[in-house]
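Collaboration report, partner site 2.

Our partner group contributed sequences for two proteins of shared interest, and the home lab folded both. The records are reproduced in the order in which they were received, starting with the first partner submission.
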Amino acid sequence: MSTTEAAIDPGIAGHDGRPLAIETRDVHKSFGSHKVLNGLNVQIPEGAASVLLGPSGTGKSVLISHILGLLQPDQGEVLVHGRSLATMSRKEGLELRRDVGVLFQDGALFSSMNVYDNVAFPLRQHTDLTDAEAHELVMDELQATGLEHAKDKLPGELSGGMKKRAGLARALVMNPSVLMCDEPDSGLDPVRTSLLAELLKERWEQLGCTLVVITHNMTLARYVADHMCLLWKGKVIQNGSIEEIFASEDEFVQQFIVGGIKGPLGMD
């Protein structure tokens, strides 16, 4: 891929031939006079473990809101599994959201519910499963995330890492085809970040879903990703395999991945 904002093939396959799970085409978004997305072209292949990297404030979390249909672009198009969100009915949009699991920065757990009920919440809201059927799925996810012993605890009794794992269990209990993680390392120390990265990669390999991780943590990115997309100033600077990203000669890409002082990225 070019190291500048590249033209995107209008088909549903990426440059490596894999079908695309998520694609944005020339997406623009402003809040008042502040322009956040400035012609964003993202391609995330089906089944990839994709990491969206970029400095703080470059539009990564705003992109998640567009993919979930919570925000509408001022210009451009967002596609999930080849379908434009703009052409979906309200019912189709709701069905799509059920197929996309989200791990938010702070876990976003309901403070008045224990861990078990937090994880069970999507099943109770969106399925007709019996209590016994739901219980089996919930316990499977709690065991997979190492939280079966904490199922009766309230969020206020959990450590930061446990909150993240509970949020992950809830995001996966509906067996989504896409799992999105918005800065999952936020608030975690380096050891817990590494352990969470290992858990994310393990669950991705087990489930075969498309994993999208929003972060600016290169340690997390290196461990999880087989595909990367670098954003800066609301645009894609580089999009491709991890090998392509690390071989890039782009000045910004190299500065960002090594954490260098010299380069186009400053303190502003």
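Second partner submission, folded after the first:
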Amino acid sequence: MSTAKRVSRGGKSRPFGAEDRASAMSAAQARRVALAAQGFRDPRHTVPTMRTFARTLRRTAVLQIDSVNVLQRAHFMPLFSRMGPYDTDLLRRAAERRPRRIVEYWAHVAAFMPVELWPHMRHRMEHYRRDGHEWIGLPERRELATSLVAEIDDRGASTARDLDDGLPRSRDHWGWNWSETKRTLEYLFLAGELAVAGRNQHFERLYDLPRRVIPPEHLNAPDPTLQEASVELLRRAALAHGIGTEHDLRDYFRMRSDLVRPALATLVESGELLPVRVEGWGRQAYLHRDAALPRRVHARALLSPFDPVVWERSRTESLFGFRYRIEIYVPESRRVHGYYVLPFLLGERIVGRVDLKADRRSGALRALSAWAEPGAPEETAAELAEELRVLAGWLGLDTVDVRPRGDLAPELAVAVKAQEG
């Protein structure tokens, strides 16, 4: 087996090879591998460009979409965490203008994925076409699905509201008030019979025919076999994670276990994935042969609850010793840290968390609570204050307001005040 060299900035090359199969990695080494794989060693550009965006997307592989907008939409935040302040039109251009670089699909959950993955999702589309989705089921009336596709063919990209004819609505899932039209459109989207051309100002999907959304070289690409598609998705998950357990790799694209195991065996057999032991993990880990193992990582970032670094909570605990639960759906009286809490990454550790809200009416970024992790360095408050200032500027907010809740809040308020002075 050949070895692959990766160079860590400020250090010597670190080869991975057959000897790593029998070796153990420390938790700190695994953490640095994961952060490097996710792009936290890439230099930030003064003005991020589409090339910067493309590099970052190669790191994250997908951008999870969520409708919560108390701070910023979920898919914009991982880009900010890695690129710094950027023009959000970069993402819109990549998703909505030719040549499209990304497209929405149920890749992790609802997410932007590289458009070239469309053929590799056809088996998933066929599954949804045949069996429906657990939240959506199958269309109640197939003639409605056929008529909706025909209407979109005639009128172009449309929202459910554009097409809704007042059909009965239901409140039987998570408070969604979906009409039969919306439910059928979502089924057609999952089944690959419709694609998403973009979003309107109300964050509603614009459904369109795939031939008007997906570039022909990807739309008309030959169907990969189920095994080939599974290997490619697992490969991209391994590149994005750098190192992970079978569960970690499976979760990235929400793959079925029966598809992951043969794909994993293929990648191990080819030498692309190297089985290693990670101290304290208790499960077999797999290191991508092209992963970098830097001596150190100097990161500073606020991580969205939907960031790939923290979205799988058990992995977050294994990598950082950081227990994280999103409390959006928890009644306010039972929340421990707050509604929309972002972990704060400093260096190569998560050193705190802060509950943030963009008060656009008053022009303030509000830190509703701030908490330090055990052993957080003394510069945590100052570094967090600076990151909040940068975030506020990116969001077009004038001030940072720190509320007196949480053990880090008093020191953070002083640091924010000092920056204003």
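Feedback sent to the partner group on the second submission included the following. Confidence is low (pLDDT under 50) at residues 1-22, 166-176. The two ends are 59 Å apart (CA to CA).
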